[in-house]
Specification:
The complex is a heterodimer of chains A (about 525) and B (about 300).
Chain A lengths: L1 H20 L7 E5 L15 H10 L4 E3 L6 E3 L2 E6 L5 E6 L13 H12 L8 H5 L5 H5 L10 E5 L2 E5 L7 H4 L10 H7 L15 E7 L3 E6 L13 E5 L4 H9 L5 E3 L6 H4 L5 E14 L9 H9 L3 H9 L4 E2 L20 H10 L11 E6 L2 H18 L4 E6 L1 H11 L4 E7 L6 H4 L16 H11 L5 H17 L3 E13 L4 E2 L15 E2 L2
Parallel strand pairs in A: 1-10, 1-11, 14-15, 14-16
Antiparallel strand pairs in A: 2-3, 4-5, 5-7, 6-7, 8-9, 9-10, 11-17, 12-16, 12-17, 13-17, 18-19
Chain B lengths: L1 H28 L13 H10 L6 H13 L14 H36 L4 H15 L2 H15 L16 H30 L2 H8 L4 H13 L1 H15 L3 H6 L5 H11 L2 H29 L7
The chains are: A alpha+beta (about 525), B mainly alpha (about 300).
Amino acid sequence: MKRIFTVLLLVLIAFNAFATGEKEGQGVEFIMNNGTEPASLDPSNISGVPEHHIYMAIFEGLVIYDPKTSLAAPGVAESWTVSPDSTQITFKLRKEAVWSDGTPITAKTVVDSWLRTLAPETAAEYAYMITMTVKGAEAYNEGKGPASGVAIRALDDRTFQVDLVGPMPYAVDMMAHYAFAILPMHVIAKYGNNWIKPGNMVSNGAFVLESWKPQESLTVVKNPKYWDTANVRLNKITFLPIEDRLTAYNKFKAGEIDWADGIPLELVDEIKLRPDYQVSPQVGTYYYIFNMTRKPFDNPKVRKALTMALNMQDLVSKITKGGQLPTRSMVPAMAGYTPAQGVAYNPEEAKKLLAEAGYPGGKNFPKVTILYNTLDAHKKIAEWVQESWKQVLGITSISLTNQEWGTFLDTRQNLHDFDISRAGWIGDYLDPNTFLDMFMSTSGLNDGLYNNPEFDRLVRQAASMPAGKARMDTLRKAEEQLMTVDQHVITFYHYVNQDMIDLTKWDGWYPNPLGSHEWKFIGPKK
Amino acid sequence: MSRFIVRRLLSTIPTLFVIVTLSFFLIRLAPGGPFAREKKVPPEILENLMKAYHMDEPLVKQYLRYVGGVLKLDLGPSFKYKDQTVNKLLGVTFPVSLTLGIISLAAATFLGTLVGIISALKQNKWQDYAAMSVAVLGISIPLFVVGPILMLVFALWLKWLPTSGWITSRAGLATLVLPVITLMLPPFAYIARLSRGSIIEVIRSDYVRTARAKGLSEKVVIAKHVLKGALLPVVTYLGPAFAGIVTGSVVVEKIFDIPGIGKIFVQSAFNRDYTLIMGDVILYSVILISANFIVDILYGILDPRISYK
């Protein structure tokens, strides 16, 4: 028996030596846990955060995300000008921008790329980012208009111009999104859908694809043809698709990965004491939607009473505990915008309002259900809400229902078959509009069937206004209707980005509102 | 025997056909679809997507198209992993689960049988109690507890082994140790108990008594007479266990970040990745049917009372 143990131990030690032996002499390599396998590498086909991380390494659009502010910074375009009425943008492309095979990137490449993403047969999910911004894009994407109707043009090899659907002050910032990617059309023409395979793939980012082992890892290496390659500080990035956050965290602790996007929530108490835990506000809101067509939620007093009975400060300090920011607004704070607020925590006033609505002490309050998707974190919050309403308002008729993700989305979005439903919204760009236009009565995203003509009018009015204080004021008035007047939703907190990365070891990685970390800036600390 | 094999092989065709048909329609009955998102896809874009995946066609036409593909061994493109075909995804992930499964099951069978024999021969002695206590633990502690504990002890505290990954990663073969131990525990424990029980039973049977009476040595009696008879229940168990273990353990693959098929099996259901679910189901069915088939044949070899005509 002893002999067996000795042999086993020797084998383990040999494995270990093998495991650590290769680690040295790799240059500056960075390993991140990307959370899941990328659904695709084709920018026209992608739709998630993990894909976005990889996109930022291997592609570059006209503009990229500023690593500190998430606003537009020069990419393939070295500069741009916006017309005085904010309806037209002219980009100047840098002449040293080329594909990794040396082919130059011209304004025509940009035109062809956007048209490919818009083409109905490409079936790009995020084509709507272009259709909501660029004139004529919607008709082409819906198959109702020609490609020539899309108001984008190459004035010469280095000048690209786009007409917007209206004055859109945030349009340039939106264009850092992968929906506006520039694609190697010469390679796509040659290989068709196989253009993203290693060996075929040509890209224009700071890195190029080296290998992709599905479900295992994806590796990119420095692109020597990148226009700013001299300032790129990493030689290699490996993306791992680890879904289990505890595994990723253990890997981080063991020094096997450098950045873990997300943390195991059950260990938040331990993690938040660590210096390599990075937490920063995210442009996103966690909220509950009232179904406005169901009693008793057609009564604003009920909606307000229920909201007033919840102490969000308590929620974030005792239940979620990850540094989330308690809120009474739908729109997170943004430069130039002060969010409008719904009612504050006030148990006495809540009781009074509920009595006025006809349910004193919670008596006769109808049976209602809180719907959420199956996840422990959502369950804890729903139970806290249920308990708070019982304690503060005396309502005992609240039940909880959880559904698996696909079923949940169908129930909430298509069937609208709920009383109160959990929801979460992450902004695609930094403008209040992305948190408001979904509540318009005509919007396909208006799951709670909110209908306030004044709100609709204000959002529509803001859409035709140029950038500036007046537009922000109009959007604020719209949020006032949604939150202060109607309290259509209960907002709990604004999300935070939760990352594990040792910033004494790496720099160029900054907490930012969209959680967009451009790889070209990241490198070892000197 | 050969007639039996041909007959069994032929009978798998309608079985598979029923499985494909039922699964095809059942998964489409589940609410939601492959393009459901928190940020609901605008209807015009959804229309483009439905067209691209032929989902705008009548269901029967989609079914015939799918079955046509399956007959040509083409399982179609994945809805979620848009750059990959289902054939490619299964082709990459299945060998991983197969490797891990075979190693784990081989280890479990060898160690399980060994422990079973020792327990049976030392019945009601301390060796028996110790072995069976381990077996009870192996069956009752869930993998999602064993896995992280092993990782904590051997990877984080002792730093002997990598936390996770697969043999093709930098850490190499060392990545196998913890997942194999985790994955083999339940079948090991089960086999140990199963073989102990059947050995005790067989050891008291008439033909073993006859063998002993003939004056054969204890070793020969155990190896030649007892084991052959006693292993039958183990073989019965090995068929479905093999099918189960090589098609991937979701828990172990998730905990140890192993790029196997188990991980995508569950995820494909949540993603409503219709083609990938179908691919998984077909693969699983083929393996299960084949494993049972092989067990039936082994029965004929191991048990002289069974003959196939």
